[in-house]
Every structure is written in C-alpha cells, then in structure tokens.
Amino acid sequence: MPAANDIRKGQVIKYNGEPHLVMETQHRTPGNLRAFVQVKMRNLRYGKALDQRFASTDTVEVLSTDRRTLEFSYADRGTYAFMDPETFDQIELSEETIGELKNYLAPNGKVDVLFVEGVAINVDLPSSVVLKVTESADGIKGDTASNVQKPATLETGLVVSVPLFIKEGETIKVSTIDGSYMGRA
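Above: the chain's sequence. Below: its structure in token form.
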C-alpha cells in the first residue's frame, strides 16, 4: 500500500471502510514537528466532504477506478438504465445514486460514470444538456418588458424559467449546474 505522501488529487482511497475521492492534498512540515499530509476528500456514497490529516508514514489503500461514458436508456420504478455504447453492456443504477441528476437525463444522453472496483459509484453530467419543452404557457402579446420570463416544463419534469418566445415542442439548452435556461438548441 502506498504511503500518505503518494496520495494525489483525483485518486479514490478507502477511509473508514468507505470510498473517498481526493479533491485536494497539501504536504506540510510545520517548524520542527513531523511532516503530515492534509487531504480534502469527499465520500462517494454520501457526498459529505471532510478534511483529514495523515502522518507522512501512514499507509493508505488506493482503490482501482475506471471512468466510462455511458448513454442513458430509460428509467423504470426508481431504477435508471445506462448502456455502454462500445460493449452494449447495460448498467442499472438506483434513484439514490442518481439523486437530483434525474432531472437532466434525456434518452440517449451521455454521462460519465465513475466505477470503483467494478461498482458504479458516481455519475457526472456534462455542463449543459438539450431537453424538449413539453408544456409552456403562451406569452402575452405586448408584454415585452426587458427579460420577461415564464415557466416551462421539460421532458424530464424539470421546470425552468424561459423567455416568452419559447413554445411547446422546442428544444432548449439547460445548465446542469444551476438548472437555468441557456438558449435554443
């Protein structure tokens, strides 16, 4: 097992029996004290971030990881199915693993899935997705004050504020970071 000095950003380590993604590391040697490694990491099962100090001589278990781009296929009773476009293998993830990302999953949309020791742990979306508007009220004629917005329901059930000129059936680009309207697709 590698020493704590060998921990690098982006690695997944086992800490207290749980996989943690290393987000930041700092090697410190304060005065005449012993050196240590300050690690900022996030629990991949629960999403909780924490800071931890390791002595430079401590050993840490680094887990094997694999990141693959998968296509979203369908959702059925709290289970989300993804397909590997190269091998055509199907992977199913629970609603707990997906969380709020379900609002941005359109059929055939691509996502990056992090596998730790062969088990899918984390899903990363692109910075924006293209979704179809399924329900939107008509704009009121003459209401052209600057930046007037109306709510629109998208194919995934997400409600986004859009400009008045957006109509049902159009496809729009939505930010996955804050859920805001970015433009027509």
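Residues 4-62 form a domain with the SH3 type barrels. fold (CATH 2.30.30.30).
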